[in-house]
Write a structure and sequence with these properties.
Layout (H helix, E strand, L loop, with lengths): L1 E6 L7 E2 L3 E3 L2 E3 L7 H9 L4 E6 L4 E3 H11 L1 E3 L1 E3 L6 E6 L3 E5 L1 H8 L5 E5 L4 E3 L4 E7 L3 E3 H11 L3 E7 L4 E8 L5 H17 L3 E9 L2 H12 L4 E5 L10 H8 L3 E5 L10 E4 L2
Parallel strand pairs: 7-15, 16-17, 16-18
Antiparallel strand pairs: 1-5, 2-5, 3-4, 6-14, 8-9, 9-13, 10-12, 10-15, 11-13, 19-20
Helix pairs in contact: 2-4, 6-7
Length: about 270
């Protein structure tokens, strides 16, 4: 592709680099000029225009973006139509976005003319949300570069929306003297709303004193009829042998992690209970 000013007599078939007005007619940026357009521009006294002239082996920006997008393998992702050298990809379901960063990096390293941008790894997304975009920077790009991208895309799944799986959840809230029931009620409402956003359903709740044996009994009971049990402790984790991790083990479960390298959330406990 050649880019720059050109005599109007040589502009037929070229792509306008900028919006241009000729009398009452206005030509948009990226408009491909035909013979009638050239005549109108000449009649308006325009002798030169800035254009892109495609080489025989070039693909226009829309065709290139579309070919790249269609070569990408993905799940629960919808490919939109090409426009202005761009193809957007949108989530078909609510879930967690995953992407092969190495594939994206390899594609973006081919040539600055071709770019793919995505959301961050493990980003939560809603149905219909844009998760990635393919953008061709100039008005055209060599077909060989597009073919190189397609070969990388053939290597496997480049991105996905891992749809939320509806789960039934049981909630345990432990109590200590002085803890107001209104606090527990609010926790339950907030939890139910959070679960609903990912398709989960709060199926049962138990309130029990902050005691290892009683929490273990409640966890065992709720685990029988639910996919997940969430425990809200009246007192935050203070030790690996504290009430919540000890209760999980007493119920026959296993503590995977007590304390997390995240903030907020340092004092979370994660475990399994069959």
């Amino acid at each position: 592709m050649k880019f720059g000013p050109i005599a109007i007599d040589e502009a037929e078939g070229a792509v306008l680099a900028h919006a241009t007005t000729a009398g009452e007619r206005r030509f948009r940026k990226a408009h491909r000029l035909n013979g009638e357009d050239v005549a109108a521009l000449k009649a308006a006294g325009i002798s030169e225009v800035v254009v892109a002239v495609l080489a025989p082996d070039d693909l226009g920006e829309d065709a290139a973006a579309e070919k790249i997008a269609l070569s990408m393998s993905h799940r629960n992702v919808e490919t939109k139509s090409a426009a202005t050298g761009r193809v957007n990809l949108h989530a078909e379901a609510a879930g967690v976005f995953t992407v092969d960063a190495k594939m994206i990096d390899a594609i973006n390293a081919i040539d600055p003319a071709i770019t793919i941008a995505t959301l961050a790894q493990h980003a939560p997304v809603e149905a219909g949300q844009m998760v990635a975009t393919v953008k061709i920077i100039p008005f055209a790009v060599a077909a060989s570069l597009v073919d190189a991208v397609a070969r990388i895309c053939a290597g496997g799944e480049i991105c996905a929306v891992n749809a939320y799986r509806p789960v039934n959840v049981g909630v345990i809230q432990t109590t200590l003297p002085g803890l107001k029931p209104s606090v527990l009620d609010k926790t339950l409402r907030v939890t139910e709303a959070r679960l609903a956003r990912s398709g989960g359903r709060l199926k049962a709740e138990r309130r029990t004193p902050h005691d290892v044996t009683l929490v273990a009994e409640a966890a065992s009971a709720l685990a029988r009829d639910n996919d997940m049990v969430v425990i809200f402790g009246a007192s935050a984790l203070a030790d690996f042998a504290d009430v919540i991790p000890a209760a999980i083990e007493k119920a026959g479960g296993k503590v995977i992690r007590a304390g997390m390298p995240v903030d907020p959330g340092n004092l979370l406990v994660l475990g399994t209970l069959d």
